[in-house]
Amino acid sequence: MRFSGQPVWIVGTVCLTLLLPACGENKSATGAPAAVASASAAPPDAVTAMKAVFPEADMKGQVQIPASDLPERIERPVAVIAGGPDRSYLVTAKEQTDMCHACSASISVYYLQSTDGKLSVASKHPDLYESGGWGQAGDILPLTLPRHGGIGMTDESGFTAQGCTVMNVSIYRFDPNGPKEILQRAPLGYSYEAVDISGKIIKPFTPDADFAINYTGNNSS
């Protein structure tokens, strides 16, 4: 396939596969700091959300994870996503304090409920999957899935090795019984020598899809 700066749209419903070249060994292309993201109404702030799950969380909302035989790790908030007037979703990452280029972060999601102004945990979904590299999580952002009024999240992460950069994206939908993976590590970008391709998740064009991915780029080789 030859790109010349023209957009290419691919519609996503449940799964997407696009083959792009692979290269090198894992190295994170992102280093997402703790962030609060809103999908509709304003969710609680990250520290408040963390303290609802972990009362011992520090002023930054971080929790030390005891492990005598493993490298020191913390669990920190990476996103708080609004799910409705009384529902929000706390997304956390368990990360190593000493960076390791071959290490990823473990992502957990906690469903939070607000009742009479008090925040409580509705359900816990720990260690759903591994994300990112260098011991840190990828970029996690909210995503509205319009077909059934759903709310979810995207996780963009990748690596750079030997001059080659690859980006992938995973998507989870927050179902009542827990997060459901609807897209697993689909290629989102590739850059190496004369090839430079990038993708962006956009709104769907038809009512039978939840999202679309717009690919742009070039191949001058």
- Name the structural class: mainly beta
Sketch the major β-sheet: 7 strands, antiparallel
Number of helices: 1
Mean pLDDT: 81
How does the overall form come out from the CA principal axes? Answer: flat
Proportion of strand residues? over 45%
Tell me the series of helices and strands, N- to C-terminal: EHEEEEEEEEEEE
Instruction: Extract low-pLDDT stretches.
Output: 1-19, 24-39
Compute the number of structural domains: 1
| Widest beta sheet: strand line-up | 1-12-11-10-9-8-7
Helix content: under 10%
Oligomer: single chain
- The total beta strand count reads 12
**Rg, nearest Å:** 18 Å
Distance between the terminal alpha carbons, to the nearest Å?
Answer: 11 Å
What does this protein look like?
The chain has 221 residues and is mainly β. It has one domain (8-219). The protein contains 1 helix and 12 strands, in the order βαβββββββββββ. It has one helix at residues 46-53; strands spanning 8-12, 63-65, 73-82, 87-96, 105-115, 118-131, 139-145, 150-161, 164-175, 178-192, 195-202, 211-219. It has a 7-stranded antiparallel sheet with strand order 1-12-11-10-9-8-7, with no helix packed on it. Strands 2-3-4-5-6 form a 5-stranded antiparallel sheet, covered by helices on one side. The longest helix has 8 residues, at 46-53. The chain is flat, with a radius of gyration of 18 Å.
